Queue: 3 jobs
Job 1
Amino acid sequence: MKPRNLAIFLISSGLVLTATACGGDSESDAGGGVTITVACQPAKTAPKTRQAWDDDVKAFEKAHPGVKVKSTDQQPCYDPKTFAAKIAGGQMETVFVVPVTNYADVIAKKQAKDITGVTNLVKNYGDIKQEARDMVTKDGKVYGVPNVNYSVGLVYNRALFEKAGLDPDAPPQTWDEVRAAAKKIADLGDGHVGFGEYGGGNTGGWHFAQSIFSRGGEMVVDGKAAFNSPEGKAVLQTLHDMRWEDNSTGSKVLIGWESLMQQMGAGKTGMMLGAPDVVTDVVQKFQGKVEDYGITGIPEGKASLTGGEAYMINPKANAAETKAAMQWIDFQFNTPGKGRHDYARGKANGDPVGVPNNDYMGDSPTGQEIIKLRTENASLPVENYQTYIDASTKVMPKLEPPKAQELYAVLDVAMSAVLTRENADIDQLLADAETKANKILAQG
Amino acid sequence: MTDTTHTVHTTAHRDTADETRKVTPPSVRTRKKPRRRAAWADGHARTIVSPLELKSRWGTRIYWAVLAAVLTVFTLVFVFPLYWMVTGAMKSGEEIAQMPPTLWPENPDFSVFSDAWELFDIGTLLQNTLYYAIGAWLFALAVDVTAAYALSKLRPMFGNAILGAMLATLMIPPIVVMIPAYVTVTDVPIFGWQLLNSPWAIWFPVAANGFNIFLLKRFFDSIPDEILEAAEIDGVPPWRVLVSIILPISRPILGVVSIFTIVMVFKDFLWPLLVLPDSEKMTLSVGLSQTAGAVSQNQIMAGLVIASIPMIIVFFFFQRSIMAGLTAGSLKG
Amino acid sequence: MDTLTLQTKRPARPPRRRPPTKRKRAVRTNITAYGFLCAALFCFALFAWWPMIRQIIMSFQQTNLVDDPQWVGLDNFRTVVEDPAFGQAWKNTIAFTFLALICGYVIPFAVAVVLNELRHARAYLRFVVYLPVMLPPIVSVLLFKWFYDPGPGLFNYVLDSVGLPTLAWLDSTDTALISLVLVSTWMNMGAGVLIYLAALQNIPGDLYEAAELDGAGIFKRIWNVTVPQTRLILLLMLMLQIVATMQVFIEPYQLTGGGPENATVTVAFLMYQYAFVYGGNYGAGSALGVMLMIVLLAVAAVQLRLTRDEKR
C-alpha cells in the first residue's frame, strides 16, 4: 500500500479513534488535593439561586483547602432514565441525590456507598428524624444523608375561596368538604376548576395512593394489592361524582407532573393534593401570587404519603473523596444559617422562604433552629401554612408501595377512567387493577 | 448540485425537474385549436385526464373547481396551523385562552420570542443541535462515502455480504433496538468508552446508515469503470480517484445524503432524549419537550416557531435535493 | 489464499510500472478496500449489528448495568406477556398501524393522483404538503396538543362554530388513538404524496391514450393504468408505512402518556417505560424489542415475496 493511501485510511479511521478523547473522567487531583463533583446546582434560569450556590462552593473550598468542588446542573437533578447508566459508566457525581421512592432500589443494587463510619462528618446527623434515617439504613449500615422530608397535604387557592364565599382560614378537612368547596369554586364558571387531579403519566396512580392513604386505606399489604377496599372505592367514587355530577374537576385530563401545578399557578384552580414544595413551585415557576396560596393537612388525615430525598455517595469514591463529600453535605445542606439554610440570603434573593417544605430535622435542636431562622426571614405569609404544620404532627407518614411506578401505571387506568367516562364501573376497574397489581407484585 | 443530468440517476425522471423544461414548443401549440381559455391544458405530460377532456366546457369548469378546492384545502390543512402557531405566540396570555379566538392578535407582542429564547435557553439548544448536525454530516459523509466507494468500485471479498448486512439494518428501525443501543453507548464494548452526553453518541449511530450507503453505492455504480481503469493505469492511487474523480461528479447525491443526515439529526427525538440528558448538552427537540410543561401557552408557541425556522430555511434552499432524495429512496424496488 | 504470492521475492520495485499480476492486484485491492471500509464496519458493528444481537441476549438476562448480568431464561418474556398493558399495547399498535394506513396510505395516493392532474400552482402545493415533514416532530406534536385542548382548542372551536358537537380528543378512550393518528398523518404524509407523485409522472402517457381509445372512463383509467403501473411503489410504501408506524413513540409520550385507560400505549412506548421509567428493567424491555423485531422481519419477508412475484 502506498504511503499516501495509508494516510487516507488513517484519516478515515482517525475520525473514529478521536472519540477516545471523550471517554473517561477527568477527576485528576490538582496538587495532591481531592476533587469531588456534586449534583443539583440550580439551573441557569434561576441566576440568583445559582450564584448563591456558586458562592457556597467558593466558601466551602476556602474552608477546606485542597478540596475542589465541581457542580453539575442536570435538570431534573435525579433522572431515572439515566441513573443506572451514569453509575455504570462512572459518570455519576461523587455526591448525588436520590428520591425516597428509589432508596431501596439504589441500596439493593449497591449503587450507593456505605457511609456508616463517617456519618459523624455531618455534625447534625443525629438530629435528623429517626424515621428518615431509618429509610437510608439497611442491615445496620447507613447509605445516605436524608435531606428533605415532608408529607402530602392539600394546597388551595385562598383568593378563589374568598371569591366563592368560602372561608380561606377554615379549609376543608374531609373529602365531603373538599367536594362541596370544589363545587362552589367551579360554580364561579368561566373555566374555574374546583379540584385539580391527574389522570395519567403515572401521576394519576400516585395521587390515588395519596388519596387512599388519607382515608386510612392501604396500597399493598404483605406483598398483595390492598387497594380494592372501601377506601379505594371511595377515592374513585368521589372523583367520579366530582367530575360528572358536580363538574368541578375540569374536563382536561392532566398527565404531566408539572401540568397540575401550571394550572394551579394560572389562578383558576381551587385545590389540589400536594406537598409544601408545590406552593414554592407554583409561586416561583408558575407565577402564582404568593399571598393566594395556602396549604393545609390532607383531608381526613388518617395517614399521608411522605416524600423526600437523601444525598448519597458514589460507591466508587475513595476515602478522601468520601470525606470531602460528607463535609460538603454537612456544609451545604445541614448547617443552620449556611448553604441552603441561609434564609437571610434567600430572602434577599427573592426566594420563597417560609414554606414548611422540610421537617427532616423534626423537633431536634437543629430542627428548631432551622424553623426559627426560616420564620424570621420568611418572605411568604407563614400563617397560610399553619394548619398544615398543626396537622402534620398528627398524620401518620406512609412510605410509597413497592414497585411504585408499575402500580401507579396500573392505577392510572382507573383514575383516567373515572375522569373520562361517565359510565365507568368502579368495582370492575378496581378488581382489574387488583389482578394486574398482584401479578406485578408476584414477580418479586 | 443542481446539475440535472446527474439527478437522473437518483430521481424519478420527471419529478422535481421544472415543468418549464417540458413545455411544448409554441409551434405545436398554435397548430391546435386556438382556444385561449384552455391553452394550459396542452404542454403538460399526458396524465389520466386528456387535454381534450380538459378543454371541454365542463372539463374546464371542473378543473378550476378542483384546483380552487385543492388550493383551499391544502392551505387550510398545511399552512393555517403554522399561521395559528405564529399568531398564537404573539397573543397575550388571556387572548390565547379566549373563546372565540381572535384571527389576528389584538396587540401583536414580539417580546414573547425573546422571552421564549431565554426560558427555553434556545441559544444553547440551537448551538448544540447545530454542532451535532454538522458533526454528524461530516462524519457520516466521510464514513459512508469511503465505504460505498470501496463496495462499488474496489469490490472486495465478501463485499456483497457486507452490503447485505448493512441493508438488513433498514428492516429494523433504530427505536426497536433502543435499549441495547443505549446500553452499548454507555459502555462501548472492547473500547470501554462511555459516550453518554458526548456528541459521538449521535455521530457513530448516524454514520451506521445503510440507506446512505445504498444511495451512494448505487450512484457510484453508475460511473463507468473505464474512467477508473484509465486512472489506475496511470498510477493514480484509489484515494485520489475518489477525491478528484468520483466526488466531483457525485455532487448531486452527496447533496441528497448531506441534507438527509442533517435533517435526521435535527428531527430526532427519542435517541437524544436518552443519550444527551444533560441540560447543557440537550438538543432543541428534547429541550422544548422538557421545558414545555413549565411555561405558558404563548411562550410554548414562540419556542416552536423559533425551533421551526432553521428547518424551514433548509427546506427553502435545498428543496430540490430533499425531494430528489425522497424519490431516490423509493425507486429501489 | 494469497500468502504464497506475498512471500515470493518482490522485485526491488520496477523502474516503470508494469501492470502487476492479477493476484497481487486482487490482494492489494482487497487491502485498500477494507481500509476504506474500516470506519463504516466499525460504526455498523458497534452501533447497528451488535445492538440487534445484544437485544436477543439481553432479553434472556437481568442486569443493573453494574454487576454481571444474570441469565433468567424466559422470565423477561413472562413478565411482559403477563403485563396488563401488553395485549393493549399490541392492539393499539396494530390499530394505529391500520388507521395510519387508511389516513397515511390511501389519502396521499389519492392526493397525488389529483395533484398530478393539476396544471397550476404545482410548486406551491408540493412545497406546502411537504412543509410539516420538515418540522421537528416535537413542534407538530405540541402544536396539535394545543389544537386538541378541550377548552381553548382550535378544533373544538371549529366543530362548534359549524354546529357539530365538540369532542374530547385526547381525553377519551374513543378518540385518543385516532387523534394521535391525525397528528402523525399530518406531519408525515407529505413524503408519501411526493413519492407517489414521482411514480405517477413515470407512467408513460400513451398508456392513458390507449386506454382512452378503448373507451375507458376516468375511473377506469385510474384502475386499469395508474394502479397497476404504480403497484411496486405501492407495495414498497406499504411496508415502509408499517415499519414506520410500528415505532410510534413521541405521540403517546408527549400527548397522552399512554392513557386514558391505556388506550394509547404502544409497544415502543411500553419498551421505554420498562427500561427508563420502571427502575431500569432492561431485560423486559429487550424482550418486547425482540418481539417487535420478529414482527418487522415477518413484514419484510412478506414484502420481499410480494415484490418478487410482482416483478416476474
Note: Chain A has two domains: 34-151+307-376, 153-305+385-442.
Job 2
Amino acid sequence: MTHLTTPSATDGTPTAGEAAVTVARLSGAAPARWTWGQLGLLVVLAVVVLFTVPNPSLAIGMLIYGLWAAGLNLLVGYGGLVSFGHALPFAWGGYAAGLTLLHVSSSAWLALLVAVVSMAVLSALVGAVCLRRTEVYFSMLTLAFAQLGFFIALQWDDLTGGDDGLAGIPVPTLWLPGTTVELNALRDPLTFFVVTAVLVLVVFAGLILYTESPMGRVLQAIRESEERARGCGYSTRLVQLATFVVAGAVAGLAGGLFAMLNNFVGLQPYWLLSGVVLIMVILGGRSSLFGPFLGAVVYLLLESTLSRYFASWQLIVGAIFVICVLAFPQGLWGLLTQTLPGLFRKRRRTR
Amino acid sequence: MGQLISQIVLGLVSGALLVLLALGLNLIFGLLEFINFSHGALYMVGAYVASYLAVATGSLWPALLVVPVVMALLGAGLERTIIRPMYGRDQVDALLLTFGLTYVLIEGVRMIAGSGGRRVSTPELLRFQVDLGIVRLPAYLLFVVVVVGLVVAGLHLFLRRTDVGLIVRAGIRDHVMIRALGVPFDRYRTLVFALGVAVAGIAGVLTGPITGVYPEMGADILILAFVVVVVGGMGSFWGAVVAGLLIGVVVSLTTLYASVYAGIVPFVLMILVMTFRPRGLLGAT
Amino acid sequence: MTEPILTAAGLDRSFGGIHAVNDVSLEIPQGALHAIIGPNGSGKTTLFNLITGHTRPSAGRVRFAGEDITGMPYSKVARKGLAKSYQITTVFPLLTVFENVRIAAQAAAHSYVFWRPADGIRAVVAHTEEVLERIGLAGERDVIASNLSHGDQRRLDLGIALATSPRLLLLDEPTAGMSPSETAATVELVKELNRDVTILMIEHKMDVILSIADRITVLHQGEKLFEGAPEDVKSHPRVQEVYLTGTL
C-alpha cells in the first residue's frame, strides 16, 4: 500500500484499528501475558476433564478439538487471518491416518506421521494460493478450498468411502520404549486418553514456543501492520505461509487422532465443521492458545447438554457467538483474565 | 444440440443468481470494508419470506415487490444495530459477526419452518414453454434472466447516474476524503448494506420456483459467490457479472458432460485465476 | 571520494498522463542530512515511494549502497539497510512500545527463528533498550503503542526505523502534526541521529529544514526546481515565489 498525500491524512491519525485501540486504552499498560503458565492450565484442565466428564469418548474428543482450535488460533488470533476452511486439514489428517492404518500398517506413529507430514505439504500448496492477496481473500479462499476438498472426498469414493465415510479403520498399536499398547478407545479409554493428553501437551508446548519465538512475534506484528513489518525487512507472506503450514499440520494431527478415536472418518460439509472450530476459538478467546482450548471444552459441553433438551441448540450457540463478538471480543479467556480481575480490583479500592 | 443450448440457458440462470449475490457482496465490501458472511443466509431468508407470501397471496408476484423492501429493512436494521459497532474495530470482527449471524438465521428458520424445505410454485402466467426453434425452454427461466438483467442495469445506473451512487463510488475509493468533505457517511453505509441485502432477497425470490427453499440453500451458493467475487476481481462490477455467468455456464456444461467434476470445476477455475491473475479477470491492480 | 549511498538517476513516474515525478535525479553522500521541500502535490512522497520500491518508476534507476535496487520489493530494500519513517504514523498499534522496537531490532539477525523464545535473545533486547533510550521512550516501554500521545507515536515510528540499524533513513515529515515543543525535541533527535546515519527527509516546516539540513532539493510539479545549501535556497527568488505562493 502506498500512502499518498491527502490533506486530511497529515494529521497522523492511525487509519486502522481505531476501536481496537480504545479496547486497549481501557487497560492502559499492557496486561500481564500468560505464556508457559498456559501449559500448566492445560494440565489442570485435562485432569478436570478426565475426572468429571463421564463419557470417555467425549473427554478424549475435548482434547483433540482443543488442540485443533488452539492451532487455528495461530492464524485467527495471532495472525489476524480468519480461516473458514480449517476442517480441510482436520479431515485430511483423518483420511491420511485412516488409510494408512487400513492399507499400510497398524502403527499409530506411522499413521500420525503420514497425517502430519502430508498435511504440511498440502498446506504449503493451499496456503500459497490463499495468501496470494490480502486477508479478505484469505477467508474466502480457505472456505472455497474446504469445499473443493469436500467434493473430492465425496466423488473419490473408492478411496474415501464417499458419503458413507471411511469405516472399519483397525485399532492402531502404539510402540513405546519397551512396550507396545493398543489404542482402543472402547476397551481401554484411559490409555487412549493419557496417550492423547501427552501428545496434545507436547504439541501445545510447541505452539507456545512458536508464538513466543521471533517468527511468532513477527506474525503478530504483521497482524498489526503488514506495511510496517515489510519496512523492517520481513517477507511477510513467508511468515504467514509458515504459520499456515504449522496450523495445518496441527489440525492434521488432531484429525488423525480423531480418526483413531472413532475408527471412522465421516464426510460432512466442511463449512459446517470449519464453523464449529472457529466458534470454539472465538468463544474461548483469541488472545491466547489456552483460550480456544477452553472454548472447545465449553462448546462440547454445551453441545452434549443443550442438544438433549433443545433441538435448535445451535441457535443458542450462534446467539452466544454473536454476543461474544459484539461485547466480549476476547472471549471466555478475556473474561477470566481481564474483566473479572478488574472487578476485584475495583472492589478492593472501594473497601 | 437442443440439450446443449438448454444446458447453457440453465447455466446462465444459475449464473445470473450468483451475479446478484456477488454484486451485493462487492458493493458491501467496497463501502463497508468487510465480507458479509451472512449474505447467503439473508438470501435464504428472502426466499423463505417469498415462499410464505406466495402461499398467503396465491402468487409469487407480490413477493417480487415486497421481499426486496422487507429485506432492505431487515438489512438496515441489522446494520444499525449489530454491524455498526464493528466499524473501526478489526476488519476480522465484522466478518466473524456476520458468520455468527448466519448460524442464528439458519437455525432460526429451521426452528420456525422446519428443516425439510418448502416448494414454491411458478407463477401461473409463466407456466408455459418458449419455443426457441431448436429447443423449448420454461418461460420462467427466461423471466429470471430478464429480471436479473434489469436489476444489474438498475444497480449500474444507480451507481453511475445518481448523487448517492457518486458518493458511494467515491467512498469506495477513498473513505478519508469522503469524511473530510462532511458527507454523512453512516447513512450511506446503512443504505448500501440494505441495498445489498435487498438484491440478495430478489435472488432468493427468483430461486424459489426453481429449486424450492431450504435452510442450507444459502451456504452452498455463498461459497460459489465468493468464488465469483475472487474470479471476477474484488470490487469490480462487471467482473462479478462476467465471472458469475461464466461459472454458471461452465458448471452447467460440466454437469452435462462430466457430472463427477461439476462440483470441483469452479474451484479449479478459481485456483487458476489466483495463480495466474491474482487480481481477477477484471479487477484493478 | 566514496560513492554516494543513494543515487537516483532520471526518475520518472506518471499516473494517468500526469507526471507526478519528472526526470528527478538525486545524489545523497554518506553522512548527509538532505531535505526535500516543495508545495503539496509536488511529488515528494511519490519520489520516496519510487526510492523504497512502493511504486515502480516509469523510467530511471535507483542505486543504493552500490547496488541497483530499482523495482525491488520494499521488504528486500529494507533488508539492504534502507529504513523509512512514515508520514501517516505507522506503528504496531496493539503491541507494547518495547515490542514495537524489538520487532525491528530482531530483523537483522533473527528474522525467522522459531525454536527459541524471542525475549531470551540478549543482543536484541539490549539493542532495543538502547534505541528506546535514544528516542526518549524508555519510561514508556510497557505502554501499548496506541495509548501513546501523538508526538510519542511519531517518535516510536522513528524508533522502529532506527532499530533496524539502517544505513539510510528516509523521514517523511517527521514533525507533522507536532506541537512546537515536540517539534523542537524531534529536530534535536534528528540532528543527533545524523551523527551516525545518513538521512533523507521530506519536511514542510521551512524553519526546521533551514536549521538542520545540509543540502536541500526543491521540487515543483514533479520536477527539480533547485538544489543547494540552505542559505542559497533562502535567497533563491524562484524558490521563494513557488514555496510561498504554492503556485507558479
Note: Strands of chain C lie at 6-15, 18-28, 33-37, 59-64, 67-68, 82-85, 168-172, 198-202, 215-220, 223-228.
Job 3
Amino acid sequence: MTLGPHASFVVTSYALATAVVLILIAWIAIDYRRQKARLRELEASGVVRRSGRGGADI
Amino acid sequence: MTLIDLANPTRFLTLTARILPWLAAATAILLLVGLYQAAMAPDDYQQGSTVKIMFVHVPNAWLAMFVWGVMSLAALGTLVWRHPLADVAAKAAAPIGAAFTFLALVTGSLWGRPMWGTYWEWDARLTSVLIMFLMYLGLIALWRAVEDPSRAARAAAILTLVGALNLPIIKFSVDWWNTLHQPASVLRMGGPSLDRAFLIPLLVMAVAFSLLFVTLHLAAMRNEILRRRVRRLQMMQAGRRSA
C-alpha cells in the first residue's frame, strides 16, 4: 500500500483520530476509577446512602 | 427489561456492567476490520489516496450530528418526561460529541487542503459544523458552571433544543447554498453513489464508530451516576458535621 504525494494528510488524519479516541477512553477510565475511589472513601468514613447500601457496592 | 426499569440508576449500572465488556470487544473487532478494509481500499481515480480520509471523516461527521440528536431526545426527556437518566445521558454525551465534531472538522480540513487547495472555507457546511462544535463546548461549560445538576440540566436541555435547529442546516447546507463541500453521496434519494469498494469500508467504519459511541456513552453515563452519588454522600457528610 503506497499513499503517494498526499501521504502526510492521510497519516495525520488517522493518527489524530486514534489519539483523540484513546484520550476519550483514558479520560473515561480514569474518571471511573476516581469516582469509585471517592465512594469507597466516603463509605469507609461511615457515610452510606439512604437505601443502606454502600456507595462502593454499585 | 423495559425502559422504565432503566429509569432506576442502580438497575442501569447493573445492566451497564454486564454489557460494557461485550460492547467494547465488538467495537474493537469492528474497528480493526474497518481499518483493514480502509487500508486495502483502492485509490480514487481523482482523489488518489486521500479518499482514505473519508473512512474516518464521514463516520465522525455523521456521529457529530447523531450525538446532538441523542442529546436532543435526552433534553426532551428532561423537560417533558423528567426521566431520571435523561440529563445524565445528555451530560455524558456532550464531550464525546465534541470529540467527534472536532475530528470531523480537522480530518475534513486535512482532506480539503490537497483536494480544494485550502484547509478552510467559510461556506455553509463548514461554518454550520463549526457552530455545532462551539455549541458542544458551550454545553460542557454550562454543565461545569452550574453546581446543582438539576438546574444545569434544564438550562442545558433548552440550549440543546435550540442547537438542534442547526442539524437540518448542516444536512441540507450543501443543497441550499454554493459550497466547496460535495453533496451527500450515501444518504441520498436514489441510493448511494459510492462504488462498493469504498461504500463497504465506509459503512463498516460507520458502524464501528457508532458502537464506539454507545460504549463510551454508557461508560460516561455510569461515571456521571457515580459522581452524583459521591456528591450526595458528600452533602450528607457535610450535613452531619455541621449538625
Note: The mean pLDDT of chain B is 89.
